[in-house]
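2024-03-11 09:14:02 INFO worker-7 job=invfold-0412 stage=load source=structure_tokens
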């Protein structure tokens, strides 16, 4: 019996879609998260613990933490991307034990997936937060190898010597390694407060604040204004979101190095109950 099952599994390795790809497209988690779950033995395919490389085919039963996953509805998942203007005081998490406002409660509900935040903003940082239902796209936009620029407007206290700015661009030692600003530009300020625009190409936790604080500089306000090619719209108010258009979505996939048609395609020979994609619409949410 064991030999027969193994032959059957091997014979299907070149058909269907990899489990982590299907679940990521459905917003269950990012591809990297799902690969970790597979390594932990949390997924079962037709009663057998999943291993990396396993694929889904019509009629397969998939369990995550012993709960059935209706993965067929992810066979085609029209991608949606929202630009959300996060205010200070909101947290980017699913649940908060302290009862603080949560970003995801401000977003429209999805029937067949969940929103995935592309990177995080800490509770005191406001500005642009990208969210999508496409785990593959989110993973590509967040992966360290992508080196995608993040730009912030930062208000600091006091005059900053040119030598300090140069040091921050060359690199300083933080507790988790050397870090630097790719660029620093003075924007405005004549009194005690000065505004700068800074860019970084990695998403380490609280990196922008920690870089300034390493030079004993107080950050009084921090706003993310750009993530890669996506700029925070000037008219987008706090708590509001904008859904990218179909054309903008094509450009974002191209920037991420992904084939949109390939990512969203439906192989009718493998999957059942196709869902017709709908054209994204613009929304504005007001609490």
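2024-03-11 09:14:09 INFO worker-7 stage=emit residues=287
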């Amino acid at each position: 019996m064991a030999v027969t099952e193994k032959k059957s599994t091997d014979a299907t390795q070149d058909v269907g879609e990899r489990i982590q790809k299907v679940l990521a497209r459905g917003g269950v988690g990012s591809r990297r998260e799902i690969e970790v779950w597979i390594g932990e033995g949390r997924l079962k395919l037709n009663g057998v613990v999943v291993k990396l490389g396993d694929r889904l085919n019509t009629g397969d039963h998939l369990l995550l933490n012993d709960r059935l996953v209706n993965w067929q509805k992810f066979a085609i998942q029209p991608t949606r991307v929202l630009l959300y203007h996060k205010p200070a005081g909101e947290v980017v998490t699913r649940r908060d034990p302290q009862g603080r406002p949560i970003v995801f409660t401000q977003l429209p509900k999805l029937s067949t997936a969940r929103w995935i935040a592309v990177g995080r903003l800490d509770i005191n940082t406001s500005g642009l937060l990208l969210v999508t239902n496409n785990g593959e796209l989110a993973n590509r936009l967040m992966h360290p190898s992508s080196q995608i620029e993040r730009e912030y407007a930062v208000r600091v206290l006091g005059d900053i010597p040119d030598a300090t700015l140069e040091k921050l661009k060359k690199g300083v030692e933080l507790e988790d390694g050397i870090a630097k600003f790719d660029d620093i530009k003075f924007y405005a300020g004549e009194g005690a407060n000065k505004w700068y625009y800074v860019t970084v190409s990695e998403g380490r936790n609280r990196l922008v604040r920690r870089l300034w604080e390493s030079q004993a500089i107080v950050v009084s306000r921090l706003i993310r204004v750009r993530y890669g090619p996506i700029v925070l719209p000037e008219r987008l108010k706090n708590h509001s979101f904008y859904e990218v258009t179909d054309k903008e979505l094509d450009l974002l996939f191209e920037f991420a190095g992904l084939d949109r048609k390939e990512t969203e395609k439906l192989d009718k020979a493998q999957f059942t109950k196709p869902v017709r994609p709908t054209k994204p619409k613009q929304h504005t949410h007001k609490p």
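2024-03-11 09:14:09 INFO worker-7 stage=report msg="The chain is about 25% helix and 25% strand."
2024-03-11 09:14:10 INFO worker-7 job finished
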